[in-house]
Amino acid sequence: MSSINSVTMTGRLTRDPELRTTTTGKQVVGFGIAVEKRFKPQDPNEKDADFFNVTAWNQTAEFVANYASKGRMIGVQGRLQTRKYTNKDGVEVNTFEIVADNVVLLDRPRDDAGGQPAAVGAPAASTEPAEVSEGDYDPFGEE
Asked: What DSSP character marks residue 110?
């Protein structure tokens, strides 16, 4: 029997994506998303959302770094991964993160200067190279 490890989530970015390049030249981006809970918690001290760390690689990483920013609504498809490491205090820590294969921006960016939405540069990112240039595609544009 084979295993399935698949995650699909929508949420808002909790911080701006941080693009880095590995020593082997691969691009990787890290960001966080807040996913609203289906039901509001009864306890007023409990948060209304769950928070997840996400990592994306290569073209997906470049897309996220170029077009996503804190507060944007985003869709993420990928897999759940666990890692162990020892923190600076010598304590072993287990962490969970989503490794994104596909990322979609689900809202329009805002132009802080004039209040008008800016153009969406690309509808989605995947491991396939995109042939879309800025302004070619706007999924929210009027027909």
From this structure: B
Can you give the three-state secondary structure of 1-12, one letter per residue?
A: CCCCCCEEEEEE
| Separation of CA 130 from chain center | 18
Pairing of strands 92-105, 49-57: parallel
Give residue limits of the domains in the chain: 7-125
Name the pTM for this structure: 0.69
d(CA 120, CA 22): 28
Per CATH, the number for 7-125 is 2.40.50.140
Tens of pLDDT along 105-133?
Answer: 998 876 554 444 443 333 444 444 344 34
49: enclosing H helix or E strand: strand 49-57
Q: What is the DSSP code (8-state) at residue 38?
A: S
